[in-house]
Amino acid sequence: MSDHIRAASLLALITLAASAHAETVTVKSPDGRNVVAVDSDKLTYTVSRDGKRIIEPSPLGLNLDIGAIGPGAKLSGHAERSVKDTYDIVVGKARSAPDHFNESQLAFAANGKAPQFQLLVRAYDNGVALRYVVPEQQGLSSFKVMSEATQFNFAKDYECWGANMGRFDTSFEAEYDKIKSSGIRNFHNYIAPLVCKTGAGATTFAIAESDVKDYPGLFLSGRGDAGLGVMVTLPPRFDNNRDFRFRQTVSAQVALKGQGFQTPWRVVMLGEAPGDLTASSLIPTLAAPSQIKDTSWIKPSKTSWDWWNDWAVNVPNAGVNTATYKAFIDFSKEMKLDDILIDEGWSVGSDVEPNPKADVTRAKPEMDMPALMQYAKSKGVGVWLWVQWQQLDNQMDAAFKQYAAWGIKGVKVDFMNRNDQEMVDWYHKVLSKAAEHKLMVDLHGAYPPNGLNRTWPNYITQEGVLGAENNKWSARITATHNVTLPFTRMILGPMDYTPGGFHNTTPPTFAHRNHEPQVMTTRGQAVAMYVVYDSPFQMVSDSPAAYKNADGSWADGAEFIQTVPTSWDETRILSGDIGQYIVSARRKGDTWYIGAMTNEAGRTLKVPLSFLGKGSYHARLLQDGADASHLKSSDAKVNATQSITLKLAPSGGAVAVIKP
Q1: Is the pLDDT confidence value at 639 over 50?
Q2: Looking at per-residue confidence, does 237 or 126 come out higher?
Q3: Which SUPFAM superfamilies match (predicted)?
Q4: In terms of CB atoms within 10 Å, which of 274, 359, 397, 570 comes out highest?
Q5: How far apart are CA 154 and CA 509, in angstroms?
Q6: What is the DSSP secondary structure assignment for residue 632, as one 8-state letter?
Q7: Residue among 503, 555, 524 nearest 651 (CA)
Q8: 122 to 212, 250, 492, 585, 621: CA distances (angstroms)
Q9: What is the count of structural domains for the chain?
């Protein structure tokens, strides 16, 4: 039983004299700026920051098959606690994160057929969160969740950014379009996060979730009553109704099984500016702590990759065969990359479809896996394998045992494209099983991050992002999209955008193609992604030849990619705005890396260096050059009292490496 459920269960024994009547329970963040107030009679809540209402009175509750948890529930007791702690991050945007909050645990008596339940309310300096808990109780062994009544009612017509998938079966990949909150309809299916600004120079907030287990992931829809705000919509269980067009179905089946039940946290992230959400670790902080005791085998890395460049290596009959992957191993070694990723097609019956005849424990005859693994080992290069999720599910124990025997470092699992209760449970299963064999995991066709990478730190990165693969068949990956992602999708957790495209061009000359795709952004933006984008397992996606000049020397930016880390000791967002530009600063040891990216408008950015320590530093700058495929470099002596100036071309970027 989790600490949350155990603590909440104890609340059933707490009866305060003052709680026999309705009251408003208020929880403030440690710095006093964020306030959640719960009306225990109406079962509504509000959220305020600096005394200004962000979320107006909004309903809470769960609709169960045995009765509704909601208005009319009687408060039987509440207790408060404060926690001030930190926890270590295995890989990610920082080495550690604070876990500092105030909490109120409200207990409600059974009401008719509805069971007794608790509401946990937390306030952090960077956001607030609520969750429902149903403890063990006499006569209750199971129930079904039909829907959730949680809403987020807005104080005014906010300007928001969100990804409306329009359906439940989805790869969770889309642009985060700007929309007024009044334009969000009840038939929309927005995924987390929904990011909103409350006004010029005022609070930015985002609606998200954390710690999802034994429950479906959320979608956000309009309220349906012409009011401003959104409500939680849950996908149906897949076994209950395989046609996701219908919503009036069971969303979760709950068996208490000797312990209580808790929903995910419903989260409102809060900050002064959009960049405050980007730097925040609130989502993993709310999640369950690591279930892996020994994490020493979980390592950040960069990898070469076959699929994006269409197996473009200089060997006869390049494709899914031993010679091709030996060439990728040689490239990774020369490029100082840690790994290679062997994508679709390596195993018997490999396919994007389930294919019951597939065997993910055996390589195709063209792939001499023992010889390939021995060759990789001799070069000091690790190997990852791609696998379709249903094919893996059919043979999971045998497959992971075989991969561990081969010496595989990790698996990229693809095409789940769901976040119903069954799929959420499957994520926990595959990550747990992988951890038993010391395998890291990269999930594609994945639902948005919800802190699972804290609970299972071998979950080192994931998709659920409209990334660079789309350059192969569309013109959707614009500079505006690229500088929207850090303030939207990436605030939840790492994203496998798959950067590294070195066939740089401009939007008017861009043409999508499958073989060695182009990107419509500059070389400066290409290298800046390795600083700006979070992904401890980071792709170097283009062909080996793309990183070389005709004379065999390294192309502009290639040597930067060779040395840039993928996991950090500290992250700061120095400036930026959604869809406009971003300047990020990351520290690894005593070295700072600055990455800057802009949309289709070129701009000159003055970057103060006040985050530096005392003394003099050496700065190496790489900025956009004469055309989209070139950089210009410069060096300077700097200190904390100075600034550097970065000139970004349209759809461009820049990086700086600052060392003592």
Answers
A1: yes
A2: 126
A3: (Trans)glycosidases
A4: 274
A5: 43
A6: E
A7: 524
A8: 17, 29, 18, 30, 43
A9: 3
Same domain for 441 and 325, yes or no, is: yes
Looking at the domain assignment, is residue 548 inside a domain? no
d(CA 602, CA 435): 45
393 belongs to the catalytic site: no
The two tokens of residue 261 are 């039940």
Q: Two tokens at 147?
A: 């829907």
Do 455 and 430 contact (CB within 8 A), yes or no?
no
Does 193 sit behind a cis peptide bond, omega within 30 degrees of 0 on the bond before it? yes
- Is 469 noted as a catalytic residue in this protein? yes
Q: Which of 175, 414, 542, 624 is catalytic?
A: 414
Give the single-character DSSP code of 288: P
According to the model, what pLDDT value does residue 21 have? Answer: 55
Summarize the confidence of residues 138-148 as an average pLDDT.
94
What are the tens digits of pLDDT across the range 438-465? 999 999 999 999 999 999 999 999 999 9
Measured in whole angstroms, the distance separating CA 413 from the mean position of its chain's CA atoms is: 16
Same domain, 230 and 315: no
Of 409, 432, 464, the position where a domain reaches its end is: 464
Q: Which of 415, 443, 464 is the last residue of a domain?
A: 464
* Residue span of the structural domain in which 142 resides: 3-286
* Band of pLDDT at residue 6, cut at 50, 70 and 90: very low
Establish if 546 belongs to a structural domain. no
Looking at the DSSP bridge assignments, the partners of residue 637 are 618
| 139 Cβ contact partners less than 8 Å away, ≥ 6 residues apart | none
Task: Give the pLDDT band (50/70/90) at residue 249.
Answer: low
Nearest to 195 by CA among 182, 215, 214, 178: 178
Q: Are residues 417 and 472 in the same domain?
A: no
The whole-number pLDDT of residue 242 equals 45
Note the pLDDT of residue 13: 34
Separation CA 656–CA 641 (nearest Å): 17
User: What is the token pair recorded at 124?
Assistant: 């952090």
Among the listed ranges 92-106, 187-201, 494-508, which one has the minimum average pLDDT value?
Answer: 187-201
| pLDDT for position 245 | 46
The Cβ-side half-sphere exposure at 246, using a 13 Å CA radius, reads: 9
3-state helix, strand, coil in the chain (%, to 5): 20, 35, 45
With both helix axes pointing from N to C terminus, report the angle between 421-436 and 396-406 in degrees, rounded to the nearest 10: 30
Express as a percent the part of the chain with pLDDT over 70: 95
Answer yes or no: do 374 and 340 share one domain: yes
Which of 469, 496, 542, 624 is labelled catalytic? 469
- Token digits of residue 455: 């609970």
Q: pLDDT category, 112, cuts 50, 70, 90? A: confident
Same domain, 89 and 148: yes
* H or E element in which residue 403 lies: helix 396-406
Residue 420 in this model has a pLDDT that exceeds 50:
yes
Predicted pLDDT of residue 15: 38
Exposed, middle or buried by CB within 10 Å (0-12, 13-18, 19+), for 559? middle
